[in-house]
Design a protein that fits this description.
single chain, 247 residues, alpha+beta, eight-stranded antiparallel β-sheet, 8 strands, 27% helix, elongated
Length: 247
């Protein structure tokens, strides 16, 4: 990995299956004269399915989205550095996503997606050290936060790989941009004697959400990009390419 980010997703890998019926009805054919519009329309229809997850395709539920474990170790400059371990991460609210735009090219195997999350709730156990602008980070405990108007832009492409004579899709290029509009965070220290430090961090964020989010955005985006790339590759590896993109 380009950056020392470790992500753990508890998803089993099963290859060679076919699309379940509830998903196959939402697949667009390569020959569709308006493939991009078909993809956008069917993606919007698929949101209730994605919310529940698709175990046959190694796809976890997106609402709530749960991540057992993740670590981040990243230094941007002398004012922003984060070394964090996160456990029992749980995010709710993705079922309310708004699809602002979706474009796909079946011949070039490329696509781009713009989403808005009107509201999400995030909670996790954390252990963090580092520096956040003028505030030193040294806290261990439980985080609970509400965040509004999160905008996500993703762009990427897939390529075909051969596995035992069968072609599968694999992520080729993938990038993301994320901007959180606003938010409120509460930190509860495991040790009550250290609650002051947790409050200092939370209060600094709550009083300066835009400045803080802009400062840590590169770390947030890198972590999310790595995570979603792992998930996408495991989903794509579940079935042959011809099932994802029939003629």
């Amino acid at each position: 990995m380009k950056y020392p980010i470790v992500l753990c997703v508890l998803i089993g890998i099963t290859q060679g299956k076919i699309l379940p019926e509830r998903v196959s009805n939402l697949i667009c054919h390569k020959s569709d004269p308006d493939f991009s519009e078909c993809t956008k329309r069917n993606f919007e229809k698929s949101i209730p399915i994605l919310v529940k997850g698709i175990p046959e395709l190694n796809m976890p539920p997106i609402d709530p989205f749960e991540l057992p474990f993740a670590t981040v170790d990243r230094t941007i400059n002398e004012l922003v550095s984060i070394n964090a371990t996160m456990r029992n991460v749980k995010m709710t609210g993705a079922s309310n996503i708004i699809v602002e735009d979706l474009r796909a090219n079946a011949n070039e195997l490329t696509g781009e997606l713009r989403l808005t999350f009107p509201w999400v709730h995030l909670e996790m156990n954390y252990d963090v050290t580092g520096q956040l602008l003028i505030v030193p980070l040294r806290s261990k405990g439980f985080l609970s936060g509400n965040y509004t108007n999160t905008q996500l832009y993703a762009k990427g492409s897939v390529k075909t790989v051969d596995k035992n004579g069968v072609k599968y899709f694999k992520v080729d290029k993938y990038s993301m941009k994320i901007r959180v509009g606003d938010g409120v965070t509460k930190l509860t220290a495991d040790n009550p004697d250290l609650q002051f430090a947790a409050d200092l961090i939370a209060n600094f964020y709550n009083e300066n959400p835009r400045a803080v989010m802009d400062a840590i955005n590169p770390i947030f985006v890198e972590t999310a990009t790595e995570l979603y790339r792992v998930v996408l590759d495991q989903v794509l590896a579940a079935i042959p390419a011809k099932e994802w993109l029939p003629e």
